[in-house]
Amino acid sequence: MKKITIGLVVALATLLSACSNDDGASAGAATQQSFKWKMVTTWPKNFPGLGTIPQDFADNVEKMSGGRLKIKVYGAGEMVPALQTFDAVKSGAAQMGHGAAYYWKGKIPAAQFFTTIPFGMNAQETNGWFYHGGGNELWQEAYEPFGIIPFPGGNTGVQMAGWFQKEINSLADFQGLKIRIPGLAGEVVADLGGIPVQMPGGELFSAMQSGALDATDWVGPYNDLAFGLYKTAPYYYVTGWQEPGAALEFIINKQAFEQLPSDLQAIVEIATEAANANMLALYTAKNNEALQSLKEKGVKIRKFPKDVIEALKSSSLQSVKNLVASDKMAEKIFNSYQKFLAQSSEYHALTEQDYYHNRSGIDWAKAQPVQE
Amino acid sequence: MKKITIGLVVALATLLSACSNDDGASAGAATQQSFKWKMVTTWPKNFPGLGTIPQDFADNVEKMSGGRLKIKVYGAGEMVPALQTFDAVKSGAAQMGHGAAYYWKGKIPAAQFFTTIPFGMNAQETNGWFYHGGGNELWQEAYEPFGIIPFPGGNTGVQMAGWFQKEINSLADFQGLKIRIPGLAGEVVADLGGIPVQMPGGELFSAMQSGALDATDWVGPYNDLAFGLYKTAPYYYVTGWQEPGAALEFIINKQAFEQLPSDLQAIVEIATEAANANMLALYTAKNNEALQSLKEKGVKIRKFPKDVIEALKSSSLQSVKNLVASDKMAEKIFNSYQKFLAQSSEYHALTEQDYYHNRSGIDWAKAQPVQE
Predict the structure, then answer these.
(1) What secondary structure letter does DSSP report for A94?
(2) What is the pLDDT of residues B131-151, one digit of tens each?
(3) What positions does the entry give for Na(+) binding (chains A, B) (predicted)?
């Protein structure tokens, strides 16, 4: 009897531990597995917004999955350099990444449409096109050859034109201007006689202080304040013609995604949608606050003169035309992008733009019984 | 031996069935339960956008939870009439609802701040305030006495001012105007000599055709086209001063929410964030398309004259002032709302509004090699 009893106890113990090791089954054996993923990013670890939103995403996925999918987020350079994020996800070294599509324009010229186009869609229009205008499907098609699935990963809203050592009073002031500016906008600046420089955000402060740069764009008040760029130049130019609604991206290794059970796949996808929206809400709140701080620090807000805006527009049109003519996928994407933008431009001129105009001048503080 | 072996087999079988019955454990026994919820809504079943987004939400929750939380969505009148949605969730007859906070202004005057305020925040600003400006916390505080937890549940973007039988050429044309218009905007119209009417969307078509109404607001091109309102009046007035960014809401019975394990609570909350963003993206895409259809049908787009806009603004300011003076919670919420709006108005005038202005006139079709 004794031996058998021991045998029974052992048998029970084994089964019990099998049960308690099951940390999150939802539908059949396949889903009883737990997963640990790595997410590499193009941002400094926990950089405001750009770096914190991917961490929030990872936290949400862990909560929703009851711990069955844990994602460790790496800052730029912690696992791979910022601009090797795409390759790390392609190879599977990391299952996931967060960055911006236009960083990969060397591999995929058309990718620029999935971040931002000078004088193109703003954030609200970009999300309309991504989710309900065919944008996401074209994005997936563009990344498919690399075994990568893209998802929208946030938006900064309209950015700022950037920080300038000298005022821009005419087109002539672009001659020889050394300015850090990414994507198609770099070609536009070059077309106007400037010298576009590609440089990661982390190097901008010293390059502006040393005079290696005459001007730099970065993002907007929230992120520019974090880098202290107001200490490097007196003039802050609005509006970000070059990035009217820069979209970020989550990229996922296709094989890794397909190994997830369907409930975890849904959790990942819906979590990207929440993160995409949450970043724009965060920037909308923080940019407002940061602009006030910058003004208190004496930053001089400037706008480009009309002739400069018009030159930037015609040059932007030409640079997009060149891109579209040079690449079949770019042409296919632009065909969709341009149709959506043509309609949304007309609609938003009648609604969002007209509303901002009509609202101006109303002083809500007057409705407040207690002035604070 | 035989008896003991049988005893062993029974013991094993019991344990095995305990394992296989575990249809979704993630952290302890509490989470092994499945849940069936009812969601009542203030919209016709599957009405474009307003009705389809809650269904998408329910589908996403079921997918993410591996079927552990199933939510059945009811259209207005299927379980309770539209305007009993709040009470049905309060009583627990339904665990969840979808509608708009300003429908409950009789119970909670301050609730209007969580839908829209005439000449107040647009959609992007509203989401900034909700998620990162303290709005959601105030919303939860306002609903707490009713045992209901609110979550943002979508946004239509800037609406249209509505459909008018006659042109509005001056303030005098508001005298005796019978117009369907909800919320604070109704008080504004009354202040200008009009006759505001409260009426559910489903009744608008016949009321306009019978002449019971001289004018009506509803939402925007996407939803107005669905109701065929273009057949009832020739003039379509932009811009929706009365609803510059109408927010919808998910409301959840607090006890029902607290009975969910933490992973399902996270799934529900993140799914509301995705649904909230998805509705604005949907309206951004569909309003563009619908506006084109309406123009093809010969709809005459009109704008109010400047003096009408100014009168609407000062009257809106006064009606908000009255609300704030009459209700302590309204005053507390307005204090937060007004501070956020003051900053975002200034910021968006420099960015979003200035960008729309700078972008105007660019003809992207010129960048397209193949004209279609």
Answers:
(1) S
(2) 999 999 999 999 999 999 999
(3) 218
ipTM: 0.90
Pick out the residues of the known binding site of B for Na(+): 218
Distance from CA of A81 to the nearest CA of B (A): 31
> How far, in Å, are A44, A54, A216, A235, A299 from residue A165 at the CA level?
26, 34, 9, 6, 12
Residue type, B301: I
At residue A226, what are phi and psi to the nearest 5 degrees? -65, -35
3-state secondary structure labels for all residues of B259-298: CCCHHHHHHHHHHHHHHHHHHHHHHHHHHHHHHHHHHHCC
- Distance to chain B for A100, nearest Cα, Å: 20
B165: Cα separation from own chain's centroid: 27
Please write down the HEC assignment for all residues of B113-134: HHCCCCCCCCHHHHHHHHHHCC
Let me know the angle formed at the C-alpha of A361 by A357 and A363, rounded to the nearest 5 degrees. 135
Tokens of A351: 């609604």
DSSP state of B360: T
d(CA A80, CA A89): 11
Mean pLDDT (chain A, rounded): 91
Indicate the residue of B158, B317, B369 with minimum beta-carbon distance to A366: B317
Give the rounded distance of the alpha carbon of B348 from its chain centre.
22
Of B63, B285, B349, the CB nearest to A360: B349
Question: Other C-beta atoms within 10 Å of A36: how many?
Answer: 9
Instruction: Tell me the CA end-to-end span of chain B in Å, nearest whole number.
Output: 85
Contact state of A157 with B65 under an 8 Å Cβ cutoff? no
| Calpha distance A30→B279 (Å, rounded) | 33
**In angstroms, rounded to a whole number, what is the distance separating the alpha carbons of residues A187 and A321?**
12
Residue A78 marked as a ligand binder: no
Indicate the helix (H) or strand (E) that contains A61.
Answer: helix A52-64
> What does the alpha-carbon distance between residue B223 and residue A197 come to, in Å, rounded to a whole number?
47
Sorted by where each begins, the domain ranges of chain B are 2-20+33-108+116-156+246-285, 162-243+297-327
Shortest Cα–Cα distance, B199 to chain A (Å):
24
Counting every residue, how long is chain B?
A: 372
Provide the CATH number for the domain formed by B162-243+297-327 in this structure.
3.40.190.10
A94-151: per-residue pLDDT in tens? 999 999 999 999 999 999 999 999 999 999 999 999 999 999 999 999 999 999 999 9
Q: Do B344 and A284 touch (CB under 8 A)?
A: yes
Which helix (H) or strand (E) segment holds residue A238: the answer is strand A235-238
Average pLDDT over residues B183-198: 94
Inter-chain contact B267–A64, Cβ cutoff 8 Å? yes
- What is the rounded CA–CA span in Å between residue A86 and residue A253? 10
Q: Which two tokens stand for residue B220?
A: 């925007």
A254-266 pLDDT, tens digit each: 999 999 999 999 9
Say yes or no: domain B2-20+33-108+116-156+246-285 is CATH 3.40.50.300.
Answer: no
pLDDT digits (tens, 9 = 90+) for B259-309: 999 999 999 999 999 999 999 999 999 998 999 999 999 999 999 999 999
